[in-house]
Amino acid sequence: MTRTVSARIGEITERIVRRSHDGRARYLERLDRQIEKGPRRNKMGCANLAHGFAACGVADKGLLAGDGALNLGIITAYNDMLSAHQPFERFPDVIRAAAREVGAVAEVAGGVPAMCDGVTQGAVGMELSLFSRDVIAMAAGVGLSHDMYDAAVFLGVCDKIVPGLIVAAASFGHLPAVFVPAGPMTTGIGNEEKSKVRQLYAEGKVGRAELLASEAAAYHGPGTCTFYGTANSNQMLMEIMGLHLPGSTFVIPNTPLRDALTRAATRRALAITQQGNAFTPVGHILDEKAFVNGVVGLMATGGSTNHTMHLISMARAAGIRLTWDDFSDLSDVVPLVARVYPNGLADVNQFHAAGGMGFVIGTLLDEGMLNEDVKTVWGSGLSGYRVEPRLAGDGSLHWIDMPTRSADEKILRPASSPFQPDGGLKVLNGNLGRSVIKTSAVKPERRVIEAPAVVFHSQEALQTAFKAGELERDFIAVIRFQGPKANGMPELHKLTPPLSVLQDRGYKVALVTDGRMSGASGKVPAAIHLTPEAKDGGPIAKLRDGDIVRLDAVAGTLQALVPEAEWTAREAETADLSDNEWGTGRELFASFRRTVGSAEEGASIIA
């Protein structure tokens, strides 16, 4: 039985509403003005409209030339290189056919770039990754700017793509929008086995051939990578925020059920346009309650730390001001109900089989952890998402109620008896600035580390020191000049194997950085997204080798234990960042590095 939202969740929601009042009011006023203008296509000049349907078939031209037919815009992040996005190649044909069945037209309105962080890990291309989110938002905006569409469907999955698409959808908030997932790849080798081989490679105990064979067995086919990183956190968010069809998030690609859900998403997008009786502009869905639900879902499932930036940027596009303190306060009261790698051994397919999103949403509603009274593309409150889709013998799609019990309590537990009582994300404050840490995969005895700093200006420098045997001791690795202004704030996943090896050897180790670690943040305590960043003269630039640093994820503090007078007088170091300014397209993003906001503000150039 769904409970009224708890007092604490209600309080946090209300303070976000108050803080956002003026910005949200301006946003809704602009949205309402757009709605009042009505559909644009029928008011176009004849030459404009003729350009808009010139490439369509005869039947579609006839429909678009008339007054009553609906036109659905498709924004796609399809490319062949991203396993998660390759299935989208055939989605436009499925969507066009489904639209024609109800007398409507669907057109690809535009494509957006989609890079794979898995390919660019440890390479210079990663320095474009975070900035690609804002490029995606702008590219989607260009696609929709033709004003030919009554609604839109967004095809995107991975790390920066969905946040960028949400920013674009919010900018066109007068249009209905349905997000259509592609689904995860089938399960390969276990994540624990994959991580073990990575550590053995870092120690020099296996070679490149063994490592590549392991990685290829893990990432082996079309669909999203099956660990619970940013891509799958995105997909969780789209369902718990009411932008997916219920239960559609983790259905694998290229199956009859996946295709049926894509057709149903098409029909639903066309059913909620301004010309129908269930008009649901996406800007009304993206309200304060929906974003609180998103953060609650992130905490309850141990999701990606990247969303401490992405959700802030996404919310701002809808006139809403989220802060890190909101994340931290929600984490304090939201129980961890899922164990999915790197917070457990299961992958997302096992999570889905254990009950998946329907179970998560249901158990959080039962404990008053979610705002139920929200708008969704499904036309219900959030209670309408306590279901899962099934195909009947005749191929028709229907939904059944989810069981109230988890099918595997090693993976999913009810919110009344969770894995831990909090979501495992903390904001750390101290004389080094503000940062975030994800502790859901960190053992309790490793959540407080006090040790000498070893300072590096790149992850490659740490790896060199590790291979030379220079890090066989207790230490806190400080990797600085990795923030958005310095080099675009790359993810630092290449640090995970060496630091994990040292931790497994019994040393006390931790990481402090103004860079990112993302959804793969694991068993090594990592204070990340430190702001102000070193490039801005942040206190991290004052640290010297040997300074004692205390990272306390229990108390929520991050301190350089240097005498106050000495710390105040010490000047911040600088670094030569000229090598970050060119090559692999980095020169194209110089203006982004100059104007980007801080990690705490969403690391955006847009808002």
UniProtKB/TrEMBL annotation:
EC category: lyase
Pathway involvement of the protein, from the record: Carbohydrate metabolism; Entner-Doudoroff pathway
Keywords assigned by UniProt, alphabetized: 4Fe-4S, Carbohydrate metabolism, Gluconate utilization, Iron, Iron-sulfur, Lyase, Metal-binding
Enzyme Commission code(s) on record: 4.2.1.12
Annotated residues for binding of [4Fe-4S] cluster: 158, 225
Catalytic activity: 6-phospho-D-gluconate = 2-dehydro-3-deoxy-6-phospho-D-gluconate + H2O
Any GO BP: D-gluconate metabolic process
Cofactor or coenzyme needed: [4Fe-4S] cluster
Pfam families: ILV_EDD_C, ILVD_EDD_N
Domain Dihydroxy-acid/6-phosphogluconate dehydratase N-terminal: 72-382
Domain Dihydroxy-acid/6-phosphogluconate dehydratase C-terminal: 410-603
InterPro entries reported in the protein's UniProt record: 6-phosphgluc_deHydtase (IPR004786), Dihydro-acid_dehy_C (IPR042096), DiOHA_6PGluconate_deHydtase_CS (IPR020558), ILV_EDD_C (IPR056740), ILV_EDD_N (IPR000581), IlvD/EDD_N (IPR037237)
The keyword ATP-binding is annotated on this UniProt entry: no
Cofactor, how bound (note): Binds 1 [4Fe-4S] cluster.
Function in brief: Catalyzes the dehydration of 6-phospho-D-gluconate to 2-dehydro-3-deoxy-6-phospho-D-gluconate.
Similarity comment: Belongs to the IlvD/Edd family.
The protein's name: Phosphogluconate dehydratase
Organism: Pleomorphomonas carboxyditropha
Gene transcribed to yield this protein: edd
